[in-house]
Write a structure and sequence with these properties.
It contains twelve helices and 17 strands. The chain has 461 residues and is an alpha+beta fold. It has three domains: 86 residues, 2-Layer Sandwich (Uridine Diphospho-n-acetylenolpyruvylglucosamine Reductase, domain 2), CATH 3.30.43.10; 125 residues, 2-Layer Sandwich (Uridine Diphospho-n-acetylenolpyruvylglucosamine Reductase, domain 3), CATH 3.30.465.10; 207 residues, Vanillyl-alcohol Oxidase, Chain A, domain 3 (3-Layer(aba) Sandwich). Helix 10 runs antiparallel to helix 11. GO terms for molecular function: FAD binding; oxidoreductase activity. Belongs to the oxygen-dependent FAD-linked oxidoreductase family.
Length: 461
């Protein structure tokens, strides 16, 4: 039942350290908005949580009123949540504390912490976390969904390195979760997503990485076939200390986009190598032999890695989606380029393939529900969607890519790269999903907690 009157939430306002915001209140539009501006979130109410107690009180009130609760830090992957009219949006952005324990090489962060804050704090001690490509992504949501970093081929998914968490369950209990306490819940939150409880604090391992050899090579889009096939062949030769992305990029002619990118279509290869300069230069020679127009490689502090992937610096009206493939043989590259290559007027700003393998290979790392990615490459594509027309065009292009690469699709997808609802993609094998449903039944039997990729309690339809 949607909230229609403030009186229905009087109980909640009496038990919050944070704030309750209802439709029409000052700040309503700003607080209900996700980072993904193409998503028009209209929840029944917004709670700005400041503590685990606030989270428990919100869950208790929602249960009493027949509502649900959707935790959200930044809203980078908000689209799969769907309509929120019967849901309290639980914003955790004010729970952004970051504590670094350099002796144990651990970070402990609040539910609202973003990677920029963790990276800066850890770097002061010569350490780094397994952050994603963008600095403003929330640490908790990213990690619960797996966490695919520039160091993934050497260290695996970020979720594998979670050591403990504070979790508020669907029945309002505040639990310490680790290998010895609530082990099934500990297993589920490591890669299984955020459907099992609201994580208010996360503890994870850090690594002694201070700088890397990193950068990108760019060519005109007309070179896409030669560059992508050369990059694919090159990935078969690199050590696990090297992670790379092959991309097709179409930059709009906007003033805020610097030259020489503004208004151009390019093919790019981005690389992060945990190697010294000489070894990295030797490794890059096969790519440089293809005569890139732009070469940005340099010794790079980990605090600057977020600039490599050219992610937008703030909230963006965009729609994207991804899937995994078992390989990129010539036929697959031809299929990809038939949709997004030269001569195709597609509305996708990026079409990219990330090299997987290494420590992401099944069996390479022990972890939780999803501890590996059983694929050779992870694909992600997206475009700007400012109105119904542009949204339809981007969705059509994403569908065309899906269809073109269907013969090479891997059996499972990666949660954090899957941003569209209703595509029926599996994120884990069937036996793992059944176990996740049992965990959901134990800790949230009423299905009170909404995640962007839901897991229903066992025994329910």
């Amino acid at each position: 039942m949607p909230v229609t009157s403030p009186h229905e939430l009087v109980y909640l306002t009496r038990h919050l350290d944070g704030a309750l915001i209802l439709p029409g209140d000052p700040g309503w539009d700003a607080r209900r908005s996700a980072w993904q501006l193409a998503v028009d979130q209209r929840p029944a109410a917004v709670v700005l949580a400041r503590s685990a107690g606030d989270v428990a009180a919100t869950l208790d009130t929602a249960r009493a009123l027949g509502l649900r609760v959707a935790p959200q830090g930044t809203g980078h992957n908000a689209a799969p949540l769907g309509p929120l009219d019967d849901t309290i949006l639980l914003r955790t952005s004010e729970m952004a504390q970051v504590h670094i324990d350099p002796a144990r090489r651990r970070a402990r962060v609040g539910a609202g912490a973003v990677w920029a804050d963790v990276t800066a704090a850890a770097a002061e001690h010569g350490l780094a976390g397994l952050s994603g490509t963008a600095a403003d992504v929330g640490v908790v949501g990213y990690t619960l969904g797996g966490g695919l970093s520039w160091f993934a081929r050497s260290h695996g998914l970020a979720a594998n390195h979670v050591t403990a968490a504070t979790v508020v369950t669907g029945d309002g209990r505040v639990l310490r979760v680790d290998a010895e306490h609530e082990p099934e819940l500990y297993w589920a939150i490591r890669g299984g997503g955020g459907a099992f409880g609201v994580v208010t604090e996360l503890e994870f391992s850090l690594f002694p990485i201070t700088e890397v050899h990193a950068g990108a090579l760019y060519w005109p889009l007309e070179r896409a076939e030669a560059v992508l096939s050369g990059w694919r062949d090159w990935t078969a030769t690199v050590p696990d200390s090297v992670t790379s992305v092959g991309r097709l990029l179409r930059f709009p002619p906007l003033e805020e986009i610097p030259q020489p990118f503004r208004g151009r279509a390019l093919v790019a290869v981005e690389v992060v190598a945990q190697l010294d300069r000489d070894d990295a230069d030797e490794l890059l020679w096969p790519l440089r032999r293809l005569a890139p127009e732009i070469d940005t490689f340099a010794r790079t502090p980990v605090t600057q890695l977020h600039l490599l992937h050219l992610d937008p610096p703030g909230p963006t009206p965009a729609t994207g989606d991804g899937f995994q493939v078992t390989g990129l043989p010539d036929e697959a590259l031809t299929a990809l380029l038939s949709v997004a290559g030269p001569g195709n007027d597609v509305p996708l700003l990026t079409v990219e393939a990330r090299h997987l393998g290494g420590a992401l290979t099944p069996g390479a790392c022990e972890g939780g529900a999803v501890s590996s990615l059983d694929a050779a490459f992870g694909l992600f594509s997206g475009g700007i969607t400012v109105d119904a027309g542009s949204s339809a065009a981007v969705h059509a292009a994403l569908d065309a890519l899906d269809a073109a690469l269907a013969p090479w699709r891997a059996p499972t997808a990666y949660r954090n790269f899957t941003e569209r609802r209703g595509h029926g993609l599996a994120f884990e094998p069937a036996d793992v999903h059944r176990r996740l449903r049992e965990v959901k039944r134990t800790y949230d039997p009423l299905n009170l907690i909404r995640a962007n990729h839901p897991v229903r309690p066992a025994g329910t339809a």
